[in-house]
Design goal:
This protein is α/β, with parallel strands linked by helices. 55% of the residues lie in helices and 11% in strands. Helix 5 runs parallel beside helix 6. Bound molecules: phosphoenolpyruvate and manganese (II) ion (MN).
C-alpha cells in the first residue's frame, strides 16, 4: 500500500514542518500532501496560502527528504509548483471534471518528470476519469495514478462523497497499470468513518491511501472534521500494517472457489441463452396471433413469483428485481424487433 498523508491545506510553516517530520520519521509514508490552492464551495472560506506554501513544502522536502504533493488547477499553478520542486501534482475532483482544465494542465507538465495523481471527477463518470488519466499518459507522464475520493450526491447521506466502489474496481480492471489510491478522508468526511473506508480499500485491493493528517485537526482551516491527529494516524496505519503488506495472490482455497464460480457463471450464460431462445419463439407466436408484445399481467405475475422464490433462497428483492428487469427488457426488445422486422417497417 502506498501511503500519502498530510494536511488538507498548508496553513503555516510550522504546521508543514511538524507534519513532514512526523511523516518522514515513520519511514513508510510515500509522500506528504498539502493543498496550497484550495478549491472551496464558497468564496470567503480559506482558499489556500498560495505560493508561500510551496516554499514551505520545498523546505520540508529538503530537510526531511520526503516527497511533497499539492493540487494544481491551471497551467500557472503547475509552473509555480514545478519551480519549487514539488514531486507530485494532483488534479482535484472539480478540475478532472473539466476537459479544458485537464488538457491545459497536461500541456503544462509535458516533458517534465513530475508524478501526477488524477482524482475522480465529482460526478460518477468513469469515461471522464479515464479520459483525464489518459491525457497525462499521452503527454508522456510516466507516473500517473488515480485517486478515488468518492462522488457527490445531494441530500442526507452517510458519506461526504459516496464511494461507488464499482467505479474504482472497473477502473482497475480496464487500466490495470494505474495505481488506484483511495482518499478515505474525502469519502468519509468525518473521522469516525475513515477506518471502515480503509478496511474496504484493503479488502478491494486498492493500491494506496491518501489520508488527511493535521497536528491539531480541530483547529484546521479546512476539512477539520475529517483530518486525523498524528496519534490517530499512527494507530490506523499500525493496526492495518500487516494487511498492507499481505501478498496480492489468492490462496488455493480461493482458487478452487473461483473455479466453482466460473462453472456456475457458464451455466448461467447457457441458461440465459436458452431462456432467450424460448422468448424469441414466443415472439414469433405473438406475431402470428397479432398479440401485443407486452402483457402487463403476465409480467406482474412473473416478477411476484420470482421475488418470492428468491426471498426463500436468501436473495434480496432488490437484487432479484434488478436481474429480472434486465432480462424482461431484453426480451421485450428482442420481440419488438422481430415484430418490426415482420411488418417490414
Ligand atoms: C483535497 O484533496 O483537499 C481536495 C480538495 O479534494 P477533492 O478534489 O477530492 O475534493
Ligand atoms: Mn481536504
Amino acid at each position: 500500500m502506498r501511503i500519502i498523508a498530510g494536511p488538507c491545506g498548508a496553513e503555516t510553516e510550522s504546521q508543514i514542518m511538524t507534519t513532514a517530520k512526523f511523516l518522514a520519521n515513520r519511514g513508510d509514508v510515500y509522500a506528504m500532501r498539502a493543498g496550497v490552492w484550495k478549491p472551496r464551495s464558497s468564496g470567503g472560506q480559506f482558499e489556500g496560502v498560495g505560493e508561500v506554501g510551496l516554499k514551505w513544502l520545498a523546505e520540508a522536502r529538503n530537510q526531511f527528504g520526503i516527497k511533497v504533493a499539492t493540487e494544481v488547477g491551471n497551467a500557472a499553478h503547475v509552473e509555480m509548483a514545478l519551480r519549487y520542486g514539488v514531486d507530485i501534482l494532483w488534479i482535484g475532483a472539480r478540475s478532472s471534471v473539466n476537459p479544458f482544465y485537464v488538457s491545459e494542465i497536461a500541456e503544462a507538465v509535458r516533458g517534465t518528470d513530475v508524478e501526477v495523481m488524477v482524482k475522480n471527477p465529482i460526478n460518477p463518470d468513469l469515461k471522464l476519469w479515464i479520459g483525464a488519466i489518459e491525457r497525462f499518459e499521452n503527454v508522456g507522464v510516466v507516473n500517473v495514478s488515480a485517486v478515488h475520493r468518492g462522488f457527490s450526491t445531494y441530500g442526507e447521506k452517510l458519506y461526504r462523497n459516496t464511494p461507488l466502489w464499482e467505479i474504482a474496481i472497473e477502473l482497475k480492471r480496464v487500466k490495470p497499470n494505474i495505481c488506484v489510491i483511495v482518499d478515505p478522508s474525502h469519502i468519509a468526511g468525518k473521522r469516525s468513518l475513515i477506518d471502515s473506508v480503509v478496511k474496504t480499500s484493503i479488502n478491494y485491493q486498492m493500491d494506496g491511501l491518501m489520508i488527511e493528517v493535521h497536528p491539531n485537526p480541530n483547529e484546521a482551516w479546512s476539512d477539520k472534521l475529517q483530518q486525523l491527529s498524528f496519534e490517530e494516524f499512527d494507530k490506523l496505519v499500525n493496526e492495518n500494517n500487516h494487511t498492507f503488506r499481505l501478498i496480492n495472490g489468492a490462496t488455493p482455497l480461493i482458487e478452487r472457489l473461483r473455479q466453482e464460480i466460473d462453472e456456475i457463471d457458464n451455466e448461467l450464460i447457457e441458461l440465459l441463452a436458452r431462456r432467450f431462445d424460448v422468448s424469441k419463439r414466443i415472439g414469433l407466436v405473438k406475431n402470428e396471433e397479432d398479440m401485443p408484445i407486452l402483457q402487463l399481467n403476465r409480467w406482474d405475475s412473473i416478477i411476484k413469483d420470482r421475488l418470492i422464490k428468491g426471498e426463500r433462497l436468501g436473495l434480496s428483492n432488490h437484487f432479484v428485481k434488478g436481474i429480472f428487469d434486465g432480462i424482461h427488457l431484453e426480451s421485450l426488445k428482442t420481440q419488438n424487433s422481430l415484430r418490426i422486422e415482420k411488418e417490414g417497417i
